[in-house]
Amino acid sequence: MNWICIGVAAMAALCLYLASPHQSLWPAALKRQAFLRWLAVPLAVGSVASAVEAYGFWAGASIALAGFMAMLVALPYLNAWRKKGARHVG
Fold it and tell me: Could you give the 3-state DSSP secondary structure of residue 19?
């Protein structure tokens, strides 16, 4: 159950990241920004709800939040790694 909750939280973070105008992982996602932002909310709530059911409120919320934040930290690095050699500043 732990990994399912973290996976769903990671999907919520991915939806938010793909809705960002600064991302270049999937340029076609910029056409669906509103839908991706909307989809992130039920995914995040579902992640917290599934973790809370299994582990209690504070532990479940912490597990879901940790998965969400880890993905939000990792996605910009993945984006930069994919664009090796490209200039990012100036």
Answer: coil
- What is the distance between the alpha carbons of residues 26 and 35, in angstroms, rounded to a whole number? 15
Q: What number is the average pLDDT over the span 49-70? A: 94
Note the Cα 68 to chain centre separation in Å. 5
Task: Provide the terminal-to-terminal Cα distance of the chain, rounded to the nearest Å.
Answer: 45
Tell me the whole-structure pTM to 2 decimals.
Answer: 0.88
d(CA 51, CA 88): 38
Tell me the two tokens of residue 56. Answer: 């209690």
Residue 81, both tokens: 């790694």
**How does DSSP assign 21-86, residue by residue?**
TT--S-GGGGGGHHHHHHHHHHHHHHHHHHHHHHH-HHHHHHHHHHHHHHHHHHHHHHHHHHTTTS
Interatomic CA distance for residues 89 and 51, integer angstroms: 40
Q: Are 67 and 47 in contact (CB under 8 A)?
A: yes
